[in-house]
Design brief:
The complex is a heterodimer of chains A (about 160) and B (about 110). Chain A has about 160 residues and is of the alpha+beta class. Chain A folds into 2 domains: about 5-125, START domain (Alpha-D-Glucose-1,6-Bisphosphate, Chain A, domain 4, 2-Layer Sandwich); about 125-165. In chain A, about 30% of the residues lie in helices and about 40% in strands. In chain A, strand 3 and strand 4 form a beta hairpin. The longest helix of chain A has about 35 residues, at about 130-165. Chain B folds into 2 domains: about 5-70, Orthogonal Bundle (Arc Repressor Mutant, subunit A), CATH 1.10.10; about 70-115. Helices cover about 70% and strands about 5% of the residues of chain B. Chain B has helices at about 5-10, 15-20, 30-35, 40-50, 70-110, and strands at about 55-60, 65-70. In chain B, strands 1-2 form a two-stranded antiparallel sheet. In chain B, strand 1 and strand 2 (about 65-70) form a beta hairpin. In chain B, helix 1 packs antiparallel against helix 4. Classes of the chains: A alpha+beta (about 160), B mainly alpha (about 110). The interface between A and B is large, with 39 and 40 residues.
């Protein structure tokens, strides 16, 4: 069962919601403490975050560096705008791929929900220019999936040949 | 969709800008040529490259042929959202474990006191 919801809102926003079995204070802390962030904000399987700078105060800098351990990596920089512990974090971030993407303004709120926390993250969708560039990225991802599928087909075929001989 | 054609099509900044404009909705050649310092025939040439790559399609309305993003281009955008969703799902599953460990540490610390 998936607890995550991701929706686009109008032309400008992506809204992500998720419930956690922990207090708002704990979820908030896991979003600002570098040692904790490095344990979970890793994206797809196989990536790590060797550098995590997170100066959690208004105007404080953010710098996350990811690596796949095989020479590939990218980083993100940002600044905190507003912090209301343990209920709200507002920050701006951009990816460097290596050219910086336009600023993404993100507001994350943590509301008590019974024994747990209901998180809402409202991200600004990239501008139309970036969305067009993303179309290209999407294609790249699609191509990768096709290659994996092709590899599976080749190895399945090799198995069949082995069985036949 | 021919991926090689699609990649070379989006490698050009003018064509990326055209796609960006079409992300907002259908537009005619005249409307597309508006913001650029280039002639309509040059825009038409860019549109042909995008159309051949399967990124845009056109329809006939009287004497006009408005262009729009093709389904495959929109699917690519959806694909990006799916990738974002998958990455976030993985993140939050790990966060669940981090939060459970924090709770455990808190309990252990209390017991020690």
């Amino acid at each position: 069962m998936s607890k995550l919801s991701l929706k686009t809102e109008g032309e400008k926003y992506v809204v992500v919601t998720r419930r956690f079995n922990a207090s708002p204070a704990a979820v908030y802390r896991a979003h600002i403490d570098p040692e904790l962030i490095q344990q979970w904000m890793l994206g797809p399987e196989g990536w790590s975050m060797p550098v995590c700078i997170n100066d959690a105060r208004p105007g404080g800098k953010i710098r996350y560096e990811w690596s796949n351990g095989k020479g590939a990596g990218f980083h993100l920089t940002g600044e905190f705008v507003e912090l209301v512990p343990p209920n709200k974090i507002v920050h701006v971030e951009r990816m460097h791929l290596p050219d910086p993407t336009p600023d993404n303004h993100i507001e994350t709120t943590f509301e008590p929900d019974g024994e747990g926390t209901f998180m809402t993250m409202r991200m600004t969708l990239p501008d139309a220019q970036t969305r067009a560039a993303m179309l290209a990225t999407g294609m790249e991802g699609g191509m990768e999936t096709s290659y994996v599928r092709l590899e599976n087909m080749i190895s399945a075929n090799a198995e069949l040949n082995k069985m036949a001989s | 969709m021919d991926l090689n054609a699609a990649f070379s099509a989006v490698a050009d900044p003018t064509r990326r800008a055209i796609l960006a404009r079409l992300a907002h909705g259908e537009a005619t050649v005249t409307e597309l040529a508006g913001p650029f310092q280039i002639t309509q025939p040059a825009i038409s040439q860019h549109l042909k490259v995008l159309e051949d790559a399967g990124l845009i399609s056109s329809r006939v309305v009287g004497t006009k042929r408005p262009r729009r993003l093709s389904k495959s281009a929109i699917d690519a955008m959806d694909h990006w959202l799916v990738m974002l969703r998958n990455a976030l799902e993985k993140n939050y599953e790990r966060l669940d474990e981090v939060l459970a460990a924090m709770e455990q540490t808190k309990k252990t610390t209390k017991e020690m006191k």
